[in-house]
Amino acid sequence: MTQQLRRERDRAERERRIVAAARELAEAEGWDAVTTRRLAAKIEYSQPVLYSHFSGKGAIMAAAAVEGCAELAERLGAAAFDPSPLAAVAEAYVAFADANPALYDAIFTLATELPFATAEAPPALKNAFGAIAAAVAPVAGGDGVGILAETFWAALHGLVTLDRGRRLSPGYRAERLAILVARFGDGVPGPAD
Amino acid sequence: MTQQLRRERDRAERERRIVAAARELAEAEGWDAVTTRRLAAKIEYSQPVLYSHFSGKGAIMAAAAVEGCAELAERLGAAAFDPSPLAAVAEAYVAFADANPALYDAIFTLATELPFATAEAPPALKNAFGAIAAAVAPVAGGDGVGILAETFWAALHGLVTLDRGRRLSPGYRAERLAILVARFGDGVPGPAD
DNA sequence: CAGTAATTTCTAGCGTCGCTAGGATTGCTA
DNA sequence: TAGCAATCCTAGCGACGCTAGAAATTACTG
């Protein structure tokens, strides 16, 4: 009985270690370096063990992405209570992407298996989106909050991805972010209090 | 003599066919389906021939991306003369991405070998960016046109990529685009003094 | 026209990838 | 302690990007 429990606990622990190893490796050398063989070596098991936990490499990346969603939601949720929520959320967003580039890619670029704007979307992801929605709500004007939040989020995502791909002129990240926040309504001194 | 010229012309033609085959295959089945073996079969030559034209698969994708830049620049340049250049450029941009999804990915997501915001950036790419800059110039206000253009471009890019990855609620593409254009154009009063 | 040199192209293969089948090993039950 | 499950590993499959060296083709010479 208790042995059965111990086995299940050990299995769960090993599953955690797989995802952690994938994240470490991805953050250190990029997702291309995350191979099933290297993952297996890192957790000190053989390759097929991975497939007793996940359906494949894609599922491991998706699991890492879900973890990332939760962490991103945490940061955004905290920022949403800032006096200037739009600017705070924007900064928290790019800071997260900057600190966890591989994880960010796993969430938004790779991990096509991950359901997003559907009923089966991970709760963590909905929380992250809710934080953005809360931040844009005060400046919604006549626009729907949900659609506006998606638009603002997409703009942030574009800045992050193009910047990382060296598609934008270096050294102007803060300026671009300030422009975006200003155009969407916050940051300009005015509606406060 | 002329034979030498003919050989060079044939070689150039074959190179064009390689890139065309890559684009066709990518647009039909995605870039993952573009393998060197399938490319070789499509142009009816053996695999190593590809490497006498390009340094590798990445270079072939980069060549396709440069072609795509030129076509994108053409569409954006035409839209920049519209009475409402901001909206016209935005629509032309998403229309291009919608009509050539694989090519769009080659330009902006893959093709990391492609130099962008540097001196060696392809002229076609600079033209495309110039069209965006021209479109945002009238609504620049106190912002620098170049930085503003990058920000607007990034926002468009974010909408395109998140939408394609099913990260956004379906059926609201036009609304999101309208919001973006409004916030960047009408939302801010005229040129600052 | 024949023979050789140079170029082009192909066959075959290397190492690695994600993934899986089937046998060996372990631990539990009786 | 014998039998049975669950667990795990060795070995291998097909496909990938890419490359070395042989074969075939072309071009140039005597």
UniProtKB/TrEMBL annotation, chains A, B:
Keywords per UniProt: Coiled coil, DNA-binding, Transcription, Transcription regulation
DNA-binding region, residues: 35-54
Annotated coiled-coil segments of the chain: 2-29
Domain HTH tetR-type stretches: 12-72
A Pfam family this chain is assigned to: TetR_N
Alphabetized SUPFAM superfamilies for the sequence: Homeodomain-like (SSF46689), Tetracyclin repressor-like, C-terminal domain (SSF48498)
PANTHER family: HTH-TYPE TRANSCRIPTIONAL REGULATOR BETI, HTH-TYPE TRANSCRIPTIONAL REGULATOR RUTR
Protein name per UniProt: TetR/AcrR family transcriptional regulator
Species of the source: Amycolatopsis samaneae
